[in-house]
Amino acid sequence: MFFFFRISADCQRISHTIGNDVHLILRNIVQGTGAFITLMTLSWPLALSSLLICSILSAIFLIYGQYQKKAALLAQDSVASANEVAQETLSLMRSVRAYGTEREEFQRFKKWLDRLAFVGMRESVASGFWILSFKTLYRSTQVFAVLLGGMSILAGSVSAEQLTKYVLYCEWLIYAAWRLQDSMSSLLQSIGACDKVFQFMHLPPSPEFLSKGLKLQRLTGCVDFVNISFHYSSRKMVPILKNVNFSIQANEVVAIVGISGSGKSTLINLLLRLYEPISGEIFINGIPLKEMDIRWLRQNIGFVGQEPHLFHMDVKSNITYGCFRSISQEEIEFTARSAYAHDFISALPSGYDTIIDDNLLSGGQKQRIAIARALLRDPTILILDEATSALDAESEGYIKDILHSLTEDSRRRTVIIIANSFHRLSMIKAADRILVMSDGQVVEIGSHIELLETNGLYAQLFHKQTDAPASIKHQKEGRVE
């Protein structure tokens, strides 16, 4: 969030610079050049003395300008951080009030404002020094011009008219130099403040905008992970995946289970090419994933995450999001019915044209819209990352029936189910195969019955999570007795 606050503030600064400072710089360059040429025609010794004053001003400005650039960078950071704290506090106001941390959050916000005030104060002192230097040199130039000009008049080398013109054009030159350097100061502030924008602009394009890879005539949904290892660049000593090997056949329903942090979601991120493996290769239809066109591949994969993310758009646009073909209203409503979402969507104030707001829909309703979005694409590979975790039992029953009907639809869809727990056991048991992960490795593969019979990690997790509710119920019954 800090990044977006910072980018927004930097872009506003760039807009101000382009709209105000650039044309002032050009105008003052032209005005100063014209004044200097005129001074040279009047008296080149006097003109050179004015040029000396401008050079001294420029030297002072170089020091002042570098400070302004650094100060602007610190100020933009402080503003962005203060905005981030304010936004975070307001969005989590219920938690803040529940824990009584209003004073602490105020101090967090105040810390960045104090830093901004400190930077602004030092910037004001530097600006005052710059203005004092200009005024001193400017008045010194006037005194010097009168003294030198008076001596030249007495010597007969300069007329009173020439001296008057010199004083006027000298003022033009020095003020043009001052305004030029003042505009340059604002420009340097913008350059310093917009450092993040320039860094962002120089980032290399994402691979999907460069890739001209393969686009297959038909995607069957056969997936192979071969010796896949992965770690995050910031934590190279902490491996997430270690030599993972498994295959998913076309039209197969596979559940991947394991405790949190075992690497399940990382596998999906690699399949979507959100990350690249450190070693090993992923194949789809026998073709290396990195040789395929990323955008085309993602258009053939449907993904429903654990936490539904909807955009601040109408319901219809959220369902059709990422689907680039022409879609009729009938298709949208049919898909919504398939995801058990049509009834509550129709009950909204404007139906499918209702703008989605954070407090408008429940978690289960958002999840059903997200499932409808994935189903509308008719994907060859459907990924469900705890996709039914936010649904009640009734809604989950409908969704489960729909998903099973899709997998049986001419057996043309591969379904990958990610499960962190066994609270949705029916979804896991319905899988053709179950992959059990632990510590970044696939440790068991088999059906639900086969894995229970082997009495391995899957059986331990299953009994641990399914026996707990029964144990709690037994304890409650004992207290009642």
TrEMBL record:
Keywords of this entry: ATP-binding, Hydrolase, Membrane, Nucleotide-binding, Transmembrane, Transmembrane helix
Listed SMART domains: AAA (SM00382)
Domain ABC transporter: 223-464
Membrane topology: Multi-pass membrane protein
Residue span, ABC transmembrane type-1 domain: 6-189
Species: Handroanthus impetiginosus
Enzyme Commission number(s): 3.6.3.43
Gene3D superfamilies, per the entry: ABC transporter type 1, transmembrane domain, P-loop containing nucleotide triphosphate hydrolases
Subcellular location: Membrane
Protein name per the record: Putative ABC-type transport, ATPase component/CCR4 associated factor
One annotated GO molecular function: ATP binding
Residues annotated as transmembrane: 42-64, 143-160
Any matching Pfam family: ABC_membrane
